[in-house]
Amino acid sequence: MKRMIKILFTVLCMMALLVPSVGTLVFGHSHPVGNESVALRPSVTSSDGTLNVAYISDLGAYFEKRFAFRPEAITADSTVLAKLFQTSSVDTVAVGKDGWMYYTDSLNDYAGRYPLSDRELGLVARNLKIIQDYCEEQGIGFLFTIAPNKNTLYGTHMPYYADYMVSDRHNRDGIKTQLEKYGVHYSDLFTVFRNEKEVLYFQQDSHWNNKGALLAYDTILTDLGHPHDDYADAAVSRKKTHVGDLSAMLYPASSEPEFDYDYGQNERFSYVTHTRSVEDATIITHCDEAEGSLYMYRDSFGNALLPFMAGAYADALFTKAFNKDIAMDLEKASPDVFIMELVERNLDWLITMPPLVRAKELSDVTIGSHQDQTVEISAVAAQGAVRFLEVRGSFEDPERVRGDEILIRVTDASGEVRFYQCFGMQAEAGSEGFLAYLPAEDYAGAQKLSVSLVIGDETVGFTEIGTEEINVE
């Protein structure tokens, strides 16, 4: 009898192991889960025609993403772990209390883990001021806004392990002070959402619902002084139409839709681009009933925001690409205003990969003092924008340098000297980085440049802290 049980158990295990393979042959491949992109079948040959030596491992990775019944398997596993242990089988989703879910990338912000320093928050604000100044020089208005993390507003449903706070320091608190210091035009969504008693985010999605998007839209355009409909007289319907992004990742085979609001916002404009969904990287819209033109960088929080914004401007261009040659986009679109929306958890993007903007050339810069420091500098053609020469580097001891104006002095082979404003960059601990996009045409054919880092302070003046002779790659 025991032998028969062992044989039966072995057979059942073998049959279970064969389900994915046999199921794929019979029923075909499964669809991507949640926000996953479609996995492409690997090729035996590489792009240059040579043998793809990694074909077997590539094929295994492809099968892992596309085998039959994968969504059902993930759903079953997630259900057991969530119900019994209040934990998640998907590393991007945190299972909260009472059916709530949170995006795990927001946990560091929530717990006060690895916050940006005051200096780094200052660099974020200063980089935004550089972008704002560039826009205003082109006659374009600028406004920056931050979409709050879901657990910043609704943290009472966070899972138990998130209660272990590391600190009470959060980027959202320090950034407002820095934005005010640098005069960046800012729309504060944290305050308006906290003043609302109603929950305006989905339980099983990381984003605001349409009522939340309406509040953000109204706040932003009111701060801009742009005429817009507040939808107070709109016929609103409330239906279970929205399947959350977190739910789709955790329970791909059994996600239940949540209630959302329809204000008729999608009927007020038309798409100029061939648009499949609001997830598209670039979307252009037109509205006959509105005035003005908009260029907007937005992340996934802009999916619900986009229809409202599109109905408020005659012409609008929305982009998700980051970092991006926004200078070229702004030159082509010539919008009235540039709105930049970025979710709270990604504030560091502005000091790790700021957008491509031509560095401002400054005149009347007088070096008052010198300080010896090791400075590493390189110059290469900017990736994806050959009209720029990307000059970047780092210096080791920012605490010794007084001032927050970051420049480089560039001397070419003919001896001509130019000063350029730089973005501040996050670098390794104990050091600070800088980045400038110079017009490549000004250094066409240059093979060597002498580049000095210059730090400016209102009281002390400009200090040169290091010079390096570099090859242009």
Can you describe this structure in just a few lines?
The protein is an alpha+beta fold. The chain contains 13 helices and 21 strands. The chain folds into three domains: 67 residues, no CATH class; 252 residues, no CATH class; 111 residues, Immunoglobulin-like, CATH 2.60.40.
Q: Number of DSSP strands?
A: 21
Name the average pLDDT.
Answer: 84
- The largest sheet has its strands arranged as 4-3-11-9-10-8-7
The total domain count is: 3
The main sheet comes to: 7 strands, mixed
Structural class assignment: alpha+beta
N/C terminus separation: 76 Å
Helix content: 25-40%
Radius of gyration: 26 Å
Instruction: Pick out the low-confidence regions.
Output: none
Shape: globular
Question: What percent of residues are in strands?
Answer: 15-25%
Quickly count the helices: 13
Task: Give me the secondary-structure topology.
Layout: H1 2-27, H2 55-66, H3 70-85, E1 93-95, E2 101-103, H4 107-111, H5 118-137, E3 141-147, H6 150-153, H7 171-182, E4 186-187, H8 189-194, H9 210-224, E5 237-242, H10 245-250, E6 258-262, E7 270-271, E8 282-286, E9 293-297, H11 302-310, E10 315-319, H12 326-333, E11 337-343, H13 349-352, E12 361-362, E13 367-370, E14 375-381, E15 388-395, E16 405-411, E17 417-421, E18 423-426, E19 432-439, E20 448-457, E21 461-471
